[in-house]
Amino acid sequence: MDVSIAHASDRGPRGVNITVDDGPDPRWTPQVLDVLREYGVKATFCMVGTQAQAHPDLVKRVVAEGHRLCDHSVSHDTSMDKQSEAYQKQQVLDAERMITEASGGVRPMYYRAPGGAFTPYSRTLAASRGMRPLGWNVDTKDFERPGTDAIVATVQREVANGPTVLFHDAGGDRSQTVEALRRVLPWLTDQGYSFGFPVR
Ligand SMILES: [Zn+2]
Fold this sequence. Notes:
By secondary structure, the protein is an alpha/beta fold. The protein contains seven helices and eight strands. It has one domain (15-192): Glycoside hydrolase/deacetylase (TIM Barrel). Helix 4 (85-103) links the parallel strand 3 (68-71) and strand 4. The protein is globular, with a radius of gyration of 15 Å. Bound molecules: zinc ion.
């Protein structure tokens, strides 16, 4: 098993991995899914356990449309790396179970620590469950709602630095994210990128 934090794309050097964090959310996840479907893009959804448990229909839709699941902990505690191993274990494994139950048995293939707060312990634990630790290269900062133009510009400026791009489909009004995806996905295709999944 590989306990290192994955960034590369399974589509090679011109691959891009779209990752969507913190959902599922009943308002925004369907809109994100609609845009991804419109452009034929498969993405990786890093789900919060309590959100998955609350919205199993959305988890099932994500899987049915060909996307992959990622464990993003039970409660998105960004101080995870300062907590006990017992706490980390509960956060990682309970979320894995909540997401798997919500999906109808499809297991998350990755683990992304909330806020990137990985520890050697949580990486090893996740990997032992078949969940590759997952990082990112391009933080679109969409969570802070800088405006659609700024989100698009960040992707255009930084995608050459690495293939894994971070978006959010929960945690507030994500209309800028939806609109940015609508512009970024065809732009990436025009630039010769193809869409893949993070390596495992
Ligand atoms: Zn997050």
